[in-house]
Structures are given as structure tokens and as C-alpha cells.
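note to self: the first set is below, dont mix up w the second
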Amino acid sequence: MNWGIGNRGVGLAVGLMLSAVPGGVGPGTAFGQSAAGEWLPRFAGLGADKIVSALTVADLGDGPSLYAGGGFLVAGGAMVNMVARLEGNQWVALGEGIDLSQGMVWSLTEYDDGSGPALYVAGDFTGAAGKVVNHIAKWDGQEWWPLGEGMNGTIRGALAVYDDGNGPALYAGGDFWIAGGQPANHIAKWDGNEWHALGEGVDGIAHSVRALVVHDDGTGPALFVGGNFSTAGGQPAVGIAKWDGQQWHDVGGGVWHEKLSSRLVRGLVVYDDGSGPVLIATGQFSSAGGVPASGIAQWDGQSWSALGDGLAFDPPIGMTGRRLAVVQAGARSLLYAGGRFTVADGLEVNYLAQWDGTSWAALSTGMDEEVFSLTAFDEGDGPALFAGGNFSTAGGVASPRFAKWRPDFPDFDSDDDGDVDLIDLEQFVTCRSGPASPATPECRAVHDHNYDQRVDLADFQFLQAAFTGAR
């Protein structure tokens, strides 16, 4: 995009316009609590018959595609056997899929072991297309393959690709304590040929590792591990730990649920609201690093902090966030949390909520049942959030266990002339001071650049940054 007149006269223009903004740097006008965007009827005829517990985007050589896994046998009317690929307006089976006598697919990810990109599928199953695969299998686009001897227990929602200095490898976490026939306490590394333990691993019995993500919190890229454990590598690490490729580290004292005397991290993701990337953790906890944080918290490399009043289930039963995803559009990003909660920051959100770096918002009326999986994907109509779970509607739209939400990202070029220039700055001031004032949805839809439900100086600063070419 052409940035119009660039920097010439920007100081004077900004100064004059700020002086014209009623209320100066005041808080502006608060608006409704629903996120900007819409539920699309994408899956009205493409639903699944049972829970969708895993979603990912993978490119096996013919372009990025959305893949889904879960406990379903049928998706969009097609027999797919627990895992499928979305192609246009139909779900397509991956060969014979997971053996019908098996349980659930809990995790999906793309990885290249040197033989080309492939989809890796993990969960509570031991067979795929008649082959013994023991909880994890590889789909290369044509055929299913085992990963050595696999595991002796469920891989529950925890797959990630991490390079510890020896090249990218696939990491898997879950309820197992043996991988490839060797001891591996709830987490293991697959190098394309064999499984390896990560030191002493983590302790725990059931649901020990539930989430993995790679993040650099200031000391270099590392694998962050979330779940239900109290030690990692024999050292204290409550619910979350960091593996740097050589040893385990505590993460700021971990997480804890005061009333339940328990800890459980279910989801991890890296999110940048414009002030730098942070690690977001969600799950069954009421504090992180000793700081009150209901079901969700962020780690900046030094300390934990809450995201507003967090997530809650009403009535409270200790169940909160399950999955996290980030939808990115240019320099803007939005964080989404899904799971078994109905309230975020005191707002009714019904199993799915949006965080913009400042506040929580509902996605219309949310879902009618729990969200189990989230991922971001652009099908060609703009960045969108895809959700899977046990629901039948999303925002009142029929969406049997699949749903698509397209957020509205602000456009700094408010007059659509191809330039971010003085006209756009003037239109912002008109929005703030004109006869309609910022109370109109039209004003907010165009000029609420930080999604805090108001039009104020913070939004002007985003616009000013775009005007000067900083964004």
C-alpha cells in the first residue's frame, strides 16, 4: 500500500487533530461486548457425527489444507473413520483411516522426517488401515505408516516440531511411559528413525502431558510442555515446564488450582498483541506463578500475569480452557480460547472467547456445547478461525461439530483510496467529534483499531503508526 504523503507535516497534522479529539486522551465510549466478525454457514452440510477433537493445517505437496480428527466416523456424509481432509465442499478420507474398533484422534501436525512432508496423527488408537501403529501414525498422502513401536499409552493433544540443535524432530506427549520399547516418561522425541526420551521426562499417572509449543522466552527457542505433573527431570515444575534440548526448567513456579489442589495445563500457544511474543497457557488452574489467573495466563519470560478476569464455568466445576489459537492478519493478531467455560471476564461467551490484547469478547452467542479444537486457516476468503468440538450450533448457525468464524480486522485506509493519508486521519476525528459521535456501530467498525470496544486515543495511535509507515 502507498502511505500517501508519508511523514511530511505529520507532527503538525497529528497535533492539530489530537487537539480536535473531544476528551483528548479520555476513555471514549464503551460499546457492546461481541467481537467484530461473523459465523459463516460453511459447515451446515459438512458436519460430523461425533466429537471433533483435533484440527490442523498441513501442506503435503498440493497446497495447504484443513485436516480434522476425533471420534467421528462420518463427516459431510462421507465415511472417513476419525480423520479427514477438507477439499472444497466435501470431506475426504485418508485411505482407510483409523481402525473402527479404536477410540479417538487427539492431535494432528505436519512434519518432514526427510522423506517429504506428512501428516502425523496421534491419540487413543492402535491401528490404522489394518496396520499396528500404537497411538501414533504417519499419513504421507498415499499410505499409513507406523512410527517404530509407537507408545504404550494415549498421546492426548500433544504433538509439536522442535529443533534442539540437531535438526527438526517430532515431539509427542501423553499418558505413556514407554516409547519405541524404551522408557520415556510421558514425552518423547521421534527423529525420523527412532524414539528418544527427554531426560527423566515428567512425572504423573493420567493425562500427564496435554500440550506442547515451541517458544523463545528470551533464552532461545525451547519446547514448552503443559499437563498434569509436578516435576520435570526430577525437579519441581508444576503443570508446565521448559525443555531446552538438554535439560528441564521450571516456568515461573507453574500453575495451581487452589480449591481443587490440582494443576493442569491443557493448551499452549504463542501470541503477540504488538508488544512482543508471549506464551499463553490455559487449563484447570486458578493461579500462575502465585498470581491469580482463572484458567488462562501469560508468561513473558520473567513472570506470569492474568488476562483480565480469565475464564470460568458457571456453576464452577474447575473446568476451563482446553485449546488456543491465534488468527493473524498483517500486523494484527487475535487470540482465541475454547473449552468448557461459559464466562470470560464476567461476560457470557459460551465455550469460545476472543482476546485482543486488552479485553475479552464473545463471538456472537458462542456454541451450545464444548469446543475441543481450534486452528487458524485462510481458505482464500481471509484469515479465519476454525473450531471443532461437541456442539451443534455456533452463533445460532447450524454447525454440527465444525464451525468457521471470520473476524473483522480494521482497515486503516478508511476511505478506500489506496492511501493511509490525512483524509483517513480527518475521518477518525470526524468519527470522534461529528454529530454521530463514536456511539454508532459504523464509527466503531471502521476506527476501533485495537478492538477494545471504544474509539479513543489508543486507536488514533494505531492509525498514526500506519500513517507514518511504522505498521
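second set (the one i keep forgetting abt)
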Amino acid sequence: MSVTGWGKVEAMQREIAARVAHVKSEQHNREVGLLCGDALIALADAVHDPVRHPPVDGVAPSRTDVKRRLDAYLAVELSGPSNEELRRVVKAAVDFATAVRHRQDATLRDAAIAAEATNNVIDIVAIIAGRRDKPLESIREELAERLARAEAEAATWNGKYEGLAGFSADLSFEDGGRFLRMKGTQDVEVMGLDYCFEDGVCYIADNRLGALRGNLRQGLDGRDVRVLIDQSYVTDTFWRSTWGTERNWPVGRLETMTIIFRLRFRVGDVLMERERKARVEHEVGSNMVRLVGG
């Protein structure tokens, strides 16, 4: 990542790099794609002028329409037949970076390439915008300031993580598997619950919990939280896990699978996860799928 002077863009580049370094699932890979899209929106905010850069197709773009906004920018600032190849390079990188967010089977390689493509777009646009034309001494001063801020941020995060070093939590099931309960040593804020296969790949990521407010959040904050397990998600995960398996079994036989519940939560400013395994059973000949515990 290089210095551009666009604070929000650079902050998002750092966040993307951190996410790529810690991805654990397809959902995390898609989240990298979302962050790449947000970084490109911030880039468009920094360079696109609706008056100077009219839309090339006559359709006024919304703020989130990165493709049209950057196309309009490039058409003016990188005009002419001799720049066609470079315009294509930038457009292709934008297309790929934004496509990863919609891929259900996004891989770590997809996420890493999307992050690299996003950085390349930012670097190219920074050059076009003249962000590399600063005097050497000015660049040195800016780098020194940024280094000082980075060191201060690192010290802050180090303090936060040292405070979390003693954090522990215990997950259990309650009320016949209707709730996942977590008792922690510090206050937490529940963000979401993932329903995953035994190999750790998440089929369903329920992010609704983090969006709840007011009375609906009761029981989802604190040191002792109870999270309602969506039985329809359990059922969907079970059927998805058994697709393609033999179905000519006698009525009354039990099919089983292991499901992993991955609880995502925040402790202060730090996002964390804890997992708990359980067994799901289905009696052949019935439509009943039930959670029977860990």
C-alpha cells in the first residue's frame, strides 16, 4: 500500500490487508470483497467530480455505482486511444474486485487477488490524480507523520489485546437446543451466528443479530448471553450437507451430521469468535430434523 493522502482510502486498505491475513471461511472471503467495494467507493468519492466527469452512457451514477463513476473519471482524465489499454486494465480490476463480494464459493485466493486488484486501481488512479507528484521532502514528512500515527495505533491495539489476553468464554446449549448460551469473563456484544459444516465452511451466516436494537437486543449483550438458534437454518444446513448421499435406507434409520455453530461477537473494539459443535439427526421417512446436542 502506498501513500496517497486519501485518509479513508488508506484506512480501508489497511483493513482489507488485515482481513485477508485472518480469513477462515467463504463468508470471510466475501467480506473482503465487500471491503474492496467500500474502498473503491471511497476512491470514487476522492476523485470523481459529477460536473467535470459526466457519465459516459448518460446515466447519472449513484454514490455506490463505482463502475460508472470511475469510468466517467477515466474517460476524462485518461482520454484518448493511446490510453485505451490502461483504461481496460483499471476497469477489469474494478470488475473483479466487486465480483468477489457476490461469489458464494469465494476462496482465499479470490479474496487475496481482489485485495491486490483494489490496491492496483488505487495506485493507478493516485498516479493519474497527481498524488505521486509531491516534492521529496513533503513525501518524507508525510511518511514520518504516518509512521508516528501507525505506531500510536499499534500501541493502542496492543493494549486492547493485552486486556483481552485473559478473556475466556464457555458455550453450551439450553432448552433442548433452542438457545446457544455463552458465559464470558468480560462483557460482549453479539454480532452474528454462523451455521457451518464439519469442515468449518459456513453455509448460512445469520447477521441479523448484530442489526437488532432496543428491546430486541436484550440477552445479546453482557457476560451471559443467550442466542436463539434458528431451526430452519439448522434444517437447511443438514439437507445441504447430505445432498448426493444414498437415500435407499429403510424407514426408521437415523441420518446424522455434525454442525458447527460459530458465534461472532465484539469485546470492546475487538471482533472475536467461539465455536460449539452439535449433532443433527433425521429419521428416514419423516420430515423432522432435530438438534440433539454437542
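remember for set 2: Helices lie at 7-21, 26-47, 66-77, 84-99, 108-128, 136-164, 231-241.
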